[in-house]
Amino acid sequence: MPDISTNTDWLRQEFNVTKAKARGEYGEMFYIKDDVEYVDNIGNRASDGLQLIVRQDLIDGMVPVAEVDTARLDLSYGTFRASMKLTTIPGTCAAFFWYFNDTQEIDMEFLSKDFDHSKKAYPVNLVLQSRAAAAHGYDASQTDNFMQANLPFDPTADFHEYRIDYSPSEILFYADRVLLAKMNGSNVPSPNSHGHLILSHWSNGNPKWSGGPPKEEAPLVIRYIKAYFNSTDPKRAQDWDGRCKNAKAETSVCKIPVVTRENQTAKDWFFSDYSDMSKNQTVYEITSGARTLEAMSRWIMIVVGLLMIGLVGGF
Fold it and tell me: Which residues cross the membrane (predicted)?
């Protein structure tokens, strides 16, 4: 895709957040710098992907930051997976999350200032934003819906798959198929919550969270996003009810390939590259510039990015 602005599956965000609302030392300026792809001129795939860049120079008291959101707002229960390479530069927060509103939000957040290579300490903050968190000024660490886990690898050295499984009874968090944490209870978002996915990379100078701003440009690189989910859209639910007469039939469900240390081929495997994986499969295109979106029964996969050519063009 030569121009990422033609992708209608994902929306690049452009807005400002004041210092007061950001609850930091500085405001945040979500802005778009470039629209084009980047291809490493020596064929180095290590940097391939969509780059969300936090920049060091303030603009009108705000830190230049970046975010992309799914255009679709009908994401309910599902499994959401992102392959990312985190920045080595201290002073940013990289976030991969499902969002309905400020009290129904499922987060994986990575603070680059907390990475300690000498101790092999690479924490990830796992968060359910809830009404309890709102009562504490949206500080989920003061509730039962906050956990910090240590990643079993250096997240800045290579791409790794981060995953959120959202079901009616619990939330599961994974990194490269390793279960990091479980959360359940009344704060699990309701089935009527029609959310969307967000990937953001930001800093506001808050020493208790993002720190920063970074002393130099700090890129978060995203190789792919795969999302399989139940849709809250009534028309999609009606279509599924009419199409899937026997959910227990052998051909009704397709197994989702899982990336493992022994099997890395699954990271380059997408349902949208194949047809007739299931008799219930629906394939449709909503953009001329992006990959197709594809439905497996009521489960949908969204794919962003090209694996051989990165969508960089610093946001």
Answer: 296-314
